[in-house]
Each structure stands twice: as C-alpha cells, then as structure tokens.
Amino acid sequence: MQKEEATTTEAAAKAEPGSTKPESELNTATAEFVFDPAPVKAAIDEFAVKSPAKAAIESGTAVKTPVTRRIWLCADDYGISPGVNDAIRELILRSRINATSVMTVAPSFTRAEAVPLTILSAGSQRIAIGLHVTLTAPFRPLSSGYGPLQDGAFLPLKATLRAAMLRRLKPQKIAVEIGAQIKAFTAAFGRPPDFIDGHQHVHIFPQVREAVIVAVRHAAPDAWLRHCGSTLSFAKLFSDRKGLLIDHLSGALQKRAGKFGLKTNPAFAGTYSFKDSADYPALFPGFLTDLPDGSVVMCHPGHVDDELKHLDTLTTLREKEYEFFAGEAFPGVLERHGVTLS
Description:
342 residues
C-alpha cells in the first residue's frame, strides 16, 4: 500500500510541471482536498496541557525506568589459599561480589575458613556459596579408589580433557568423588551447596557431567548447576577459543540437567585469555553485554601468597581483578550497564 501511494504521489509530482491547465483551475479542482491543520493542532496542544506525562516526554524531561538485571558475580577458588580467601571475604563484605565457589579438596580449606562465609551469608546480604568440583592436578581426591591418578593426584587438565573426550574416564568413581566433595562441603557449612560448578570447568566435560548429575541428584538435589553457555554470537566467540569450547560442552550439561529437573543459570560470562597483560577493567564491561537476569559472571580475585604460587599459575591477574572490584569505579560500571548484585 505504501509503495502504491508513493508511486501515485511521485506520478502526480511529475505530471504537475507539465500540466497545461491554468493555475487557478488547478487550485479550484483540488480545493475540496485542502487540509486545515489548525483544529488538529489545537486539540494536540490541549491534550499536552492536560497530560503532564506527554508534555514531559515531548520536552525531554521524562525519566525512563531502567531495566535492571540481577547477576551472580562469582569468585571461584575459595579455599585455594589464605590470600585468596581473605580477598573474597572482603569483597563479599563490601557487596562487590555476591557468590563464591569452594574447593573442598584444597589443603588450605578447613572448617575455620568456612565459618566466616557462613556468618556473611547469614546476614541481610544475600550471597550464594557453591561447591567448586575439583578433578585436576595438583589436587588430590577425597575418596579412596579414585582413578586414574598421576603421582597420587588427579590428572593434569589437558590429560583429563583428552580422556573425557575419548570417554576413557570412570564415571562411577567420578560420581563417588563428587559425592565426597559435597559431603565435605556439607560438613564444613552445615548445609549442602547452593550451586555446583567446576574448577577449570571440569564439570561440563563428557563423562564428568553425567557423574555430576548423578551425585547432585543424590546429595544436593536443590542445588543449581553452573551452565557455561554464552550469549555472544559465534563470530564473537570464535576469537575466544576457550570460550567457544566451554560454550559447546556446556550445552549437553544444560540439556541433561533439564531432563532430570535440575536448575541451571540462563547464561555465563567471564572467560578471557588469562594472560598477565590482560586489561581486566576494559574486559569486564563486555561480560555484561546481553546477559539475561540470573546469569553468572565468573571471576578470580585474590591476594597472591606462597600457597597460591605452589598450587596455581593464575596469580598476577588475581590481584588485578581484586583491585578492579575493590576500586571506586566498579559500582558505576554495574550501574551504567543496568546490572545489580543485590
């Protein structure tokens, strides 16, 4: 219809200059179609006076109601070292993060480290405390008979992923080990974890994810599972190979969890190269893009100490992340992106 109207109008415009009719005749012929805007304008003006909301919109003074999304900003690796534990507790106390996941297999994790988190979660501030399932070196299993092992410890990450992709792991033993880690968490905190995720994302690996489902259904059926799927397009994910792999593997976990009635978060963000040269303050706003309400953003803030250096290669960036979250600019970043942790 619009195309026809445009064509008609255009034709009329082209025909008018070549018309042989006198101007007075043309005016007479079209007089009945002359539109007088005065009455309509008067009615609009009257409505604007009677409608303050409309007047405010037209004048640009109306205040738009922002759509605020609540996310879980989760500090991974609680328990890995005293320095990391201190940094995470401080950020929780200052309302800069609202979730953390605990490594019950870490040498520095004890009930004494669980008590401060329990106290923080019992206050008015809502925080989520989850289990950080750990199945890679240099950590050691809590259950007897776990395998395969290397020098009494779990296999390194690459070997674990390779075995999982080739389906050479032993799901029954993995389920027993995850059950043991849930039991250790429950003993330390006096309750099951709020959610389950994995150190180095091991919980989404083939065979491991099946064992996670079995263990969670048995020992922590009310816990939700961290789904690591991204909202980014394939083109954007393609430049982040780690993020692309995690996104791909996580789909099967989410599907299987849904089949058994287990909850998952809608989306996930927070992966990057973990190179010491990374500009974390510049990267973080990108994590918030298009995240739906209830999503998880993973982070790794911490203070570096000898225990951390002995167990993990991620050191310098933990300090950078901590400085960003503890800094004065961080609350403004959340506000500008319509995100809240409360």
